[in-house]
From TrEMBL, chains A, B:
Taxonomic lineage of the native organism: Bacteria, Bacillati, Actinomycetota, Actinomycetes, Micrococcales
Record carries keyword Nucleotidyltransferase: no
Function, in words: Catalyzes the ATP-dependent amidation of deamido-NAD to form NAD. Uses L-glutamine as a nitrogen source.
Domain (CN hydrolase): residue spans on this chain: 4-261
Protein name: Glutamine-dependent NAD(+) synthetase
Organism: Protaetiibacter mangrovi
Length: 577, 577
């Protein structure tokens, strides 16, 4: 059986950074060459980052991307890496617009491609067939689908090449891999992390390998991009579904593996398959490689690592030096501070305690203790003297007055940001955002929301996991026990607790998951056995919170990890009863 | 030649309001029947409103919509309107998901349909073929395309039925209309207003009529829906391209017209065309109808009316009683106040002057004069005493201190909103938003931005048009002359003017149009003859304003009319040099 030494570059590209991304690919090519690899595959759009959204409709961007591909091939060759076959993901175009649109319509003028570089030239190209347009994906909006499968004969092996969604759909190019009798299927991906994604992705890769009787090499990018986190988890599975190699999640890695694949046969020609034969010199692959199979962390560890990576990359890719956040002594700000310290180091994290006349002594102590445990920069700015003149001049009471406290805190954090250039973190969790339990321009102010897709009950679980994880390693647990165990309170009036207003969090989160995430209607949720009155109350809170947001602002649209986009709804609409 | 009396219901649906929208259709049917019409066509998705976004992925919503169609047919019949053939737009489904997606993927389970109601039953259905997925449209995301053209034989005329985008694409169903030898083509639409849209839309309708040798009846919805304004402008054009009838823009209207159409022939069967014959009783059409051909207003009048309708419907459809906005004496807030008064009446508009120590006497006078000219509710809240303690406690200077002034104003407006339930209007124009010349959580605070898609130079033009329009009608011009003629200033420090920081507005707007709206790169714009240094400065302002927004918040995503969505870009990305 012919053998190929295969390298998968699980790298972290930055959208639009053509030079930097090309450097990353070159570095991976040097390492792959040093390891004796015959073939290197990068992730989907590794040359431009992913997703490029409407940049795919900008001709100057597409021209620059298109020029970068042969330039990369030439550099590889000039560095003596020309014998290494390199598969690189990038957009191709501009082409003639696909659609007849209205006057200003930005029609698709690009394809989502993988180019094959060899001996200084671009020797083949594949264009993605299936353009996902659901959940976080909008590819059909900006790309033109391809219609031809590419099969390359390399060192006696027929190697088929597809891109991400092509693997998920029955039929299409993946269906032709079997007919073409390919020995190896390479899939390049930009596949974002979702909770339990590995329970779907690995079985799919395995199933395709067995169905097609083909080794499948799956390479994913890694890193945070706005509200997405790509987790890597690149994997190679043999034709019997056994894992040959697996890269770690949440960090860059070059996965090198020797693949024994069926030799090229002489399958009858298959429609819409293009065959390319690549000459190859002597292989540099020598000796046996040590097995490289990473273990995945458990659910909480994966989530924590995703949150850390997402925040880190948002900070670094935007060029921020530091972050600032308000520390109330509560669980949400404590968890956000711990994520931030894990992401960029406590020395770049600034916490501000902003006690009001309603803040308990305990809350202040909890904030102090958190700052000390984490070792972040810490300051205290009492707000009573700033709130009083506003309340007095405007004659405010009730919720309008409560909101002024939160908004003065927003002003303080923004002033710190404007003075020092910090990114402001807003600490709202998914539950609070869904039911509108926050103040627009107050505690919701900020550029990045680390836990905006984490329900309250999961915030507690993550806090406990992170503390236990520290204790296991003999480190200081970052989160004060009291912040975890005390009843949550907004502390905007005396003796307030969240449960004065909201149902118990476990029940609330369960109903929200059905209503918001699973798009179930009121009747469907009641039919599952939830108390009708509570369902009405919760769904009305969600609806009312949308009304409240409309009054002050739609959003604010804050970046922050989204493990699957829940819903994209019209702003103005009447719900069913 | 057979004659059909045709009624087009240019109505204003509200998204999700199934009962209310059905009542609107019933009212139109009563009027159409009274006018002797044989056939009534409503706009695209008239039963649910448009766009429904991810509501199309919610099974309970689709079930309720699907049930509303036969219910409407039954009510029409019960009211004695069963002989009237009624075409109604609505989503159909839920169907089996179209895609194999990942775990939580909201896959398409609906079609964008037109149902034909007659004698109490649903007698035919057409599903839209071409699902636009560019600019403001995301239909391919949520709908499954149809694949069959519908031709109905009614009173001896073959009537073909298509939906909106189907008309814009060559080939597809519109190509089959000629082959099917239809005498009348009905197109139901949800076609949003854009500047100069009538210069594209009417020629298209005319061209299709002539190409297909068919009378074309084009019916559009009207009204504001979040960022979109549907302008109506329904029209009927004969097979020689002559306008037979045209509805006014920006208001509801029932357009009734007698159509002489080619009688049904016996064309050879055409692939993918379904033929349905509808029995008809005696026509109620008697006598001759007066011609009903509306004149369009000029460019500025159309824009003003679009802005007024968009704001009115945002207020009304969200159930707000009133609006509040800050009045600085400048042109932007003056124009927003005038739009608001035209939209909902001055009695529902609350203006707050919030002078600081840098506000000139002239500015206060201009704000006073505006309030008096418009007759809105007016109050004055000086901010000096509220800003001083914040500046002092935090030791602020420079931009950080300037921003506190704007943010205290934001707190005041939000306190008014929280106390009285007003919708807060934010008065930023498109130029200011593009270059970041505003304060996050300050003057950008608000739920609706009436002029967010109006460049500064156009704001002045609209102000002059509105004043001249008032004078023509012998009314008080709403906008003080001084607000139009004085140099614009943010008044956050002594003697500040916009032109200290920004290039002259005509030049700035010209470059922004190329960079933001037309997606031209820096080199492309310089090649057009613009000064390279100015282009660099402006494009860098746009980039820096995005960075600035990332620091404080992404957005805020504020609703406000968008006459074509400019760009949807990744938040984090590195631009080309």
């Amino acid at each position: 059986m012919p053998r190929l030494r295969l390298a998968l570059a699980q790298s972290n590209p930055m959208v639009g950074d053509l030079d930097g991304n090309a450097e990353r690919i070159l570095a991976a090519a040097r390492d792959a060459h040093a390891a004796g690899a015959d073939l290197l595959a990068t992730g989907e759009m590794a040359l431009t980052g992913y997703p490029i959204e409407d940049l795919a409709a900008q001709p100057s961007f597409l021209r620059a991307s298109a020029d970068a591909v042969p330039a990369l091939a030439a550099r590889l060759d000039a560095e003596g890496l020309g014998e290494l076959i390199v598969i690189v993901g990038h957009p191709d175009g501009p082409f003639e617009p696909r659609l007849l649109g209205t006057s200003n319509a930005p029609t698709a003028i690009a394809q989502n491609c993988a180019s094959v570089l060899h001996r200084g030239r671009v020797v083949a190209r594949y264009a993605k067939h299936h353009l996902p347009n659901y959940s976080v994906f909008d590819e059909y909006r900006v790309f033109i689908p391809g219609d031809e499968l590419l099969v390359m004969r390399i060192r006696g092996v027929d190697v088929a090449l597809i891109i991400c969604e092509d693997l998920w759909r029955d039929g299409g190019p993946v269906g032709r891999v079997l007919d073409a009798e390919a020995g190896l299927l390479i899939v390049i991906n930009a596949s974002p992390f979702e909770r339990d994604k590995d329970e779907v992705r690995l079985p799919l890769v395995t199933r395709r390998a067995v169905e097609s009787s083909t080794v499948v090499a799956y390479v994913n990018i890694v890193g945070g991009q706005d509200d997405l986190v790509f987790d890597g988890d690149s994997v190679v599975v043999d034709e019997q579904g056994r894992i040959l190699a697996r890269a770690p999640q949440f960090r860059e890695h070059l996965l090198v593996v020797d693949v024994q694949a069926d030799g090229a046969g002489d399958a009858a020609p298959v429609d819409a398959v293009r065959h390319v034969a690549l000459e190859a010199g002597e292989s540099g692959a020598a000796g046996a490689l040590a097995p490289d199979v990473a273990e995945l962390g458990d659910d909480r560890e994966q989530l924590w690592n995703a949150l850390v990576l997402g925040l880190r990359d948002y900070v670094e890719k935007n060029g921020f030096g530091s972050v600032v956040l308000g520390l109330s002594g509560g669980i949400d700000s404590a968890v956000c501070a711990a994520i931030a310290a894990d992401a960029i180091g406590a020395d770049r994290v600034h916490g501000v305690s902003m006690p009001s006349r309603y803040s308990s002594e305990g809350s202040r102590d909890d904030a102090d203790e958190l700052a000390e445990r984490i070792g972040l920069h810490y300051s205290v700015e009492p707000i009573a003297e700033l709130v009083a003149p506003v309340e007095a001049q405007l004659g405010l009471e009730g919720v309008a007055a409560e909101n002024v406290q939160a908004r003065i805190r927003g002003i303080i954090l923004m002033a710190e940001s404007n003075t020092h250039g910090h990114l402001v973190l807003t600490t709202g969790n998914k539950t609070e955002l869904a039911v509108g339990y926050s103040t627009i321009y107050g505690d919701s102010a900020g550029g990045f929301a680390p836990i905006k897709d984490v329900p309250k009950t999961l915030v507690w679980e993550l806090a406990r996991w992170r503390n236990a994880h520290a204790e296991l390693r003999g480190e200081v647990a970052p989160i004060p026990e009291n912040s975890i165990s005390k009843p949550p309170s907004a502390e905007l009036r005396p003796d307030q607790t969240d449960q004065d207003t909201l149902p118990p969090y476990p029940l609330l989160d369960a109903i929200l998951e059905q209503y918001v995430t699973h798009r179930q209607g009121r009747a469907d949720i009641v039919a599952m056995g939830y108390d009708a009155e509570t369902v009405d109350f919760v769904t009305r809170l969600v609806d009312r919170s949308e009304w409240k947001r409309r009054q002050g602002a739609i959003g604010p649209k804050i970046s922050g990890m989204a493990f699957g986009r829940d819903r994209r709804l019209p702003i103005t609409y009447r719900r069913l009863g």
